[in-house]
Amino acid sequence: MSVRVALLGCGTVGTEVVRLLEDQAGDLAARVGAPIELAGVAVRRPGRHPGVRQELLTTDPAALVARDDVDVVVEVVGGIEPARSLLLQAIKSGKSVVTANKALLAEDGATLAEAADAAGVDLYYEASVAGAIPLLRPLRESLAGDRITRVAGIVNGTTNFILSAMATSGAGYAEALEEATRLGYAEADPTADVDGYDAASKAAILATIAFHTRVTAADVHCEGIRTVTAADIAAAEGLGCAIKLLAICERVPGAGRGTAAGGAGGVGELGAPESVSARVYPAMIPLSHPLASVGEAFNAVFVEADAAGQLMFYGQGAGGAPTASAVLGDLVAVARNRVGGGRGPRESAYASLPVRPIGDVLTRYHVSLEVADRTGVLSAVAGEFARRGVSIAAVRQTGGEADGEQSAREQQGARLVVVTHGAPDSALAATVEALAGLDVVRGVESVLRVEGLGRPVSTLGVAG
Amino acid sequence: MSVRVALLGCGTVGTEVVRLLEDQAGDLAARVGAPIELAGVAVRRPGRHPGVRQELLTTDPAALVARDDVDVVVEVVGGIEPARSLLLQAIKSGKSVVTANKALLAEDGATLAEAADAAGVDLYYEASVAGAIPLLRPLRESLAGDRITRVAGIVNGTTNFILSAMATSGAGYAEALEEATRLGYAEADPTADVDGYDAASKAAILATIAFHTRVTAADVHCEGIRTVTAADIAAAEGLGCAIKLLAICERVPGAGRGTAAGGAGGVGELGAPESVSARVYPAMIPLSHPLASVGEAFNAVFVEADAAGQLMFYGQGAGGAPTASAVLGDLVAVARNRVGGGRGPRESAYASLPVRPIGDVLTRYHVSLEVADRTGVLSAVAGEFARRGVSIAAVRQTGGEADGEQSAREQQGARLVVVTHGAPDSALAATVEALAGLDVVRGVESVLRVEGLGRPVSTLGVAG
Question: Which residues cross the membrane (chains A, B) (predicted)?
Answer without folding.
Answer: none
